[in-house]
Amino acid sequence: MKTYLFIFLLSAFLFPCNAQELIISEHLKAKVGKPASMALSGNLLILKYDDWTFSFENIQPETYVANVNLTGIEHLFIDSLFDTTKRDKLPNWLAIISKELADSVAPKGSSVNIANLGNSKILSSYNHDGQQGFIFILEERLIHKIEVLAKKGRFDNLMDNITQRNL
Q: Alpha-carbon distance 162 to 122, whole Å?
């Protein structure tokens, strides 16, 4: 994954153009415009545009929730943020954490969407009041998280531009 990020960053500087592709994984990509600035810090890539920003990271199950190792149940846990019936499969204490996190990822009044793209599952929410959205992409071995600070149109445009890669 770090190789993909390095190639993306390098191409942004060596081959300027109007559209860029963010390689999310071996199966998925997102068409994004050329950002005004980019920053990479550990596992977090931040792309800043004139009127919006988004960050991309791979969720680390060992550290995503403080003091909880989600290894082996990370897919179920992220699913439980959007589907309350999934919380029934979690231990009570973890279901409580799921509810608390869900309240910040998808607060009441948020637009929530669950879709499949190839073998990937995409869970998203957009909070109109806070102009903030979250996109979780669940793949067999990885979970990607995209956080968007933008108006709804920008969020929807990013969602629409997540597509399968032709390998």
A: 10
* Residue 85 in tokens: 């019936």
Closest CA to 44 of 59, 61, 25, 30: 59
Instruction: Please tell me the total count of domains within the chain.
Output: 1
Phi, psi of 56 (to 5 degrees): -135, 135
Residue 54 in 3-state DSSP?
strand
- pTM recorded for the entire structure: 0.86
* Both structure tokens of 11: 């191409």
Give the residue numbers spanning the domain of 77.
Answer: 2-164
What is the enclosing helix (H) or strand (E) of 114? Answer: strand 111-117
State pLDDT tens for residues 18-67.
Answer: 458 999 999 999 999 999 999 999 999 999 999 999 999 999 999 999 99
Residue 5, token pair as written in the block: 């990020």
Find all residues with CB under 8 Å of 7, minimum gap 6, and list them: 23
- Two tokens at 104? 């910040």
* DSSP conformational letter for 34: P
Q: Which two tokens stand for residue 141?
A: 């071995």
Work out the angle between the directed axes of helices 92-105 and 74-82 (0-180°, nearest 10). 50
Distance CA 150, CA 92 (A): 35
d(CA 111, CA 154): 14
